[in-house]
Q: What sequence folds into this?
């Protein structure tokens, strides 16, 4: 065989091998096509809606919402109660605190559909201009806020704190777990530690809570 014939043969082998390699993925794609078509029959972007009914600030409310909607987003985006603020959205700052059945929760960590039949109270439900809740009035009197972003959560949490103490629920700083805790600055600071004030109005907040506690004693 001449060198020229050997060169032509090697070229034909190279081209044939390349064609075989190229054909294999094409066949695989053809075989996979029915599966892809089957997957395409499912609608994209579909949401799972669920019905939830609860009482918010004394008014019965009913919503058809995505099951992934948090209580915070249901309040703000669906019911337009924007007093509860979205801060960290991870349950770390307390700006979204509201009362559910009288107990405080971080609404950003709770799904709305979990609260069927519950009683929800936001800052709007505690008091109104001209008829403030005692805690709201105390915050105003003692300058318990600066920028005000955390204030709704601070006030809701403050109201719950006094109820917890009144119910005899101990905290990590309670000296006697079998005795009713006192309304001390130490107790208040510990119980309010989940509410962050980036402006640093903590001492004024303690004064406001202490005054309300004193008036209720």
A:
């Amino acid at each position: 065989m001449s060198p020229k014939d050997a060169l032509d043969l090697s070229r034909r082998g190279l081209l044939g091998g390349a064609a075989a390699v190229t054909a294999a993925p094409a066949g695989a794609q053809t075989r996979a096509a029915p599966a892809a078509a089957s997957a395409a029959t499912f609608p994209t972007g579909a949401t799972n809606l669920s019905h939830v009914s609860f009482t918010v600030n004394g008014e019965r409310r009913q919503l058809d919402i995505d099951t992934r909607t948090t209580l915070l987003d249901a309040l703000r985006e669906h019911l337009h109660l924007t007093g509860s603020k979205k801060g960290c959205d991870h349950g770390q700052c307390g700006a979204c605190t509201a009362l559910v059945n009288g107990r405080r929760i971080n609404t950003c960590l709770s799904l709305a559909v979990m609260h069927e039949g519950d009683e929800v109270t936001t800052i709007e439900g505690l008091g109104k201009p001209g008829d403030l809740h005692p805690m709201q009035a105390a915050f105003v009197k003692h300058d318990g806020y600066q920028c005000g972003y955390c204030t709704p959560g601070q006030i809701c949490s403050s109201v719950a704190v006094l109820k917890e103490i009144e119910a005899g629920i101990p905290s990590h700083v309670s000296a006697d777990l079998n005795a009713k805790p006192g309304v001390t600055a130490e107790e208040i600071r510990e119980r309010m530690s989940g509410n962050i004030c980036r402006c640093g109005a903590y001492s004024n907040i303690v004064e406001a809570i202490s005054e309300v506690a004193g008036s209720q004693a």
Q: What stands out?
A: The helical segments are 3-40, 71-78, 123-126, 134-141, 151-166, 185-191, 202-216. The chain has two domains: 49-125, 127-216.
